[in-house]
From TrEMBL:
Gene: AT2G46740
Extent of the signal sequence: 1-35
Gene Ontology cellular component terms for the protein in this record: membrane
Pathway(s) this gene product operates in, as recorded in its UniProt entry: Cofactor biosynthesis; L-ascorbate biosynthesis
Cofactor field: FAD
Enzyme superclass (EC): oxidoreductase
Chain ranges of the FAD-binding PCMH-type domain: 64-246
Record's catalysed reaction(s): L-gulono-1,4-lactone + O2 = L-ascorbate + H2O2 + H(+)
Pfam families: ALO, FAD_binding_4, GULLO2-like_3rd
GO BP annotations, alphabetical order: L-ascorbic acid biosynthetic process
Name of the protein in question: L-gulonolactone oxidase
Keywords recorded for this protein, A-Z: Ascorbate biosynthesis, FAD, Flavoprotein, Oxidoreductase, Signal
């Protein structure tokens, strides 16, 4: 994400930007102890009253502002019960917020401005650790980074998790967060949970709040609903994980051409436990992650501190954002492609931030303990430096501003989907360079889950990040290609969107894709019959009331709708609604030259 910018206007400037990127890499290697941490996503006018919430990039898909009358910061389960009880008695709407608020859709939003935000910021402690039973019970506001460290203290490891450690346990449970694997129970964090303690609204006899203790053995139906809950069942208080003995990983990156990638993608995940891909479709290249478990006594002290997740100089980030804005204005596709090649080659040559001993990279494979190899996010860790350096997407600076389209395509359909994307690239080889400025298409393996709103089958999760204009009515270069890819996945191949990412259109009718949706909704009705933890957004995506799409002039530019007429695009700027190039059923905003 840190390389989500476009540092070039053409080949004449490529050497300059290679130098700049080299200086950037040097900065991240020696300067990561200093970085202004993200601010709290909840801001209040006075004390804890008259509050608003945003996400980590500072803008929801529809750019609305989400408010509440006040925010509560419980520090214990008892305080949490008291807060939920008082709000339930008063009939107030509630939603949970987390320390960094990394969900892009409006999952944290409350209807109106009279509700209550419940922040889990201070519910971040270990409740108990049992090395013999290999279990760890933590509060829901604990970050993934803390969870990994707490497990390691007792010689245990979480086998799979997202690569960014700034998410919380409750946030991962709420949205179905995952790593990459087809092995074991798969890569979803929630499938390594054995017990959930949740506080939900109660009756008068319950004191208006009820602690529910859920497990696979005692309450399997409710447990499978709570494993991916979207926050509509109540507040997760504590989570118990079944962990594994600490192990090491042996990791090697290999870059190849993508000629046989459509076949390789189907089998590679069976050969390597932690396999993933970074696909660079405009360059015709794929970076294969050959990543396997090895014995804990294997020699090696590797560390993965992913370069784009390290602190970055705000001035450099601002310069490169300005560069991409200018390229968009000038429709400079060539410049974007040159920059994309520079960025991807720089990342690959610096091993993406892998070091053999925490300091330098001496060659592949890099072998290190699971707790040092699985996730990172060091831009969160530094001391305050007055915004001289930050995470690249910090909304307080002129930083990276992006859309994120993320969906899981069934493994049986992946070959056809990859071929469809290749067909688009054949039409215009420069069309997807913009994706490669943002790391490329990250592809991770997922498996079916018993969670009612979890993955339905073995699949590959395609994570696509790309430029978003500051003005919602400004179209993007080659936006029709990305819109077509999005619609091919969602509608041709029935892909499942990631609950914590994506633009509004991805969630239109999504609940019909889940065979256990009726069972989930039945549990929701039982836990929260008055819908106090529900919102307009959750009602829309769960198919209860309304539709997540918003139809208005320019709505297709930001994925609020699929265009059905020219006005949904930007006709005054030459962008009109037309059928797709490969998937004729798609409707996309294309730049039409006279």
């Amino acid at each position: 994400m840190a390389f989500g910018y476009s540092p070039s206007y053409g080949s004449n400037h490529a050497a300059f930007w290679r130098t700049l990127l080299g200086l950037y890499c040097l900065f991240t290697l020696v300067h990561t102890a200093i970085s202004t941490p993200p601010e709290d996503p909840v801001k209040c006018v006075s004390g804890n009253t008259n509050c608003t919430v945003t996400n980590s990039i500072g803008a929801f898909p529809d750019r609305s502002t989400c408010g509440a009358a006040n925010v509560a910061f419980p520090t214990t389960e008892a305080e949490l019960v008291s807060i939920v009880s008082a709000a339930t008695k008063a009939g107030r709407k509630m939603r949970v917020t987390t320390r960094y608020s990394h969900s892009i859709p409006k999952l944290v939003c409350i209807d109106g401005n009279d509700g209550l935000f419940i922040s889990t910021k201070f519910l971040n402690h270990t409740v108990r650790a049992d090395a013999k039973a290999m279990t760890l019970t933590v509060e829901s506001g604990m970050t993934l980074r803390q969870l990994i460290a707490e497990a390691a203290k007792v010689g245990l490891a979480l086998p799979y998790a997202p690569y960014w450690w700034g998410v919380t346990v409750g946030g991962m449970m709420g949205t179905g967060a995952h790593g990459s694997s087809l092995w074991g129970k798969g890569s979803a964090v929630h499938d390594y949970v054995t017990e959930i303690r949740m506080v939900s609204p109660g009756s008068l006899n319950d004191g208006f709040a009820k602690i529910r203790v859920l497990s696979e053995t005692t309450t399997p139906n409710e447990f499978n609903a709570a494993k991916v809950s979207l926050g509509v069942l109540g507040v997760i208080s504590q989570v118990t994980f079944k962990l594994q003995p600490m192990f090491k990983r042996s990791l090697k990156y290999v870059m190849k051409n993508d000629l046989d990638f459509n076949d390789q993608a189907l089998t590679f995940g069976k050969k390597h436990e932690f396999a993933d891909f970074v696909w660079l479709p405009s360059q015709g290249k794929v970076v294969y992650r050959m990543d396997d478990r090895v014995a804990v006594n294997t020699s090696g002290n590797g560390l993965y501190d992913f370069l784009p997740f390290r602190s970055q100089l705000s001035a450099v980030v601002a310069t490169t954002r300005s560069s991409e804005e200018k390229q968009e204005t000038l429709r400079d596709a060539h410049g974007k492609c040159v920059a994309a090649t520079t960025i991807s080659s720089t990342l690959f040559s610096t091993s993406y931030g892998l070091t053999s001993n925490g300091i330098i990279f001496t060659g592949y494979p890099v072998i290190g303990s699971q707790n040092h190899m699985m996730s990172s996010g060091s831009c969160l860790d530094g001391l305050e430096d007055g915004l001289i350096s930050t995470c690249a997407w910090d909304s307080r600076i002129k930083g990276v501003f992006f859309h994120q389209t993320c969906f899981s395509v069934p493994l049986t359909q992946v070959k056809s989907f990859i071929n469809d994307i290749k067909s688009l690239v054949k039409i215009d080889s420069k069309s997807l360079c913009g994706l490669e400025l943002y790391y490329g298409i990250l592809m991770r393996y997922v498996t079916s889950s018993p969670a009612y709103l979890g993955k339905e089958t073995e699949a590959i999760d395609f994570d696509i990040t790309y430029y978003r204009a500051n003005d919602p009515l400004t179209p993007r270069l080659y936006e029709d290609f990305i819109e077509e890819i999005e619609q091919i996945a969602l509608f041709k191949y029935n892909a499942l969107p990631h609950w914590g990412k994506n633009r509004n259109l991805a969630f239109d009718g999504v609940i019909k894709k889940y065979k256990n949706a009726p069972a989930f909704l039945k549990v929701k009705e039982s836990y929260d019959p008055k819908g106090l933890f529900s919102s307009e957004w959750t009602d829309q995506i769960l198919g209860i009331k309304g539709n997540p799409t918003i139809v208005k002039d320019g709505c297709a530019l930001e994925g609020l709708c699929i265009c059905s007429e020219d006005a949904h695009c930007a006709p005054t700027k030459g962008y009109l609604c037309r059928p797709g190039k490969v998937y004729k059923e798609a409707r996309v905003c294309i730049h039409v030259t006279k």
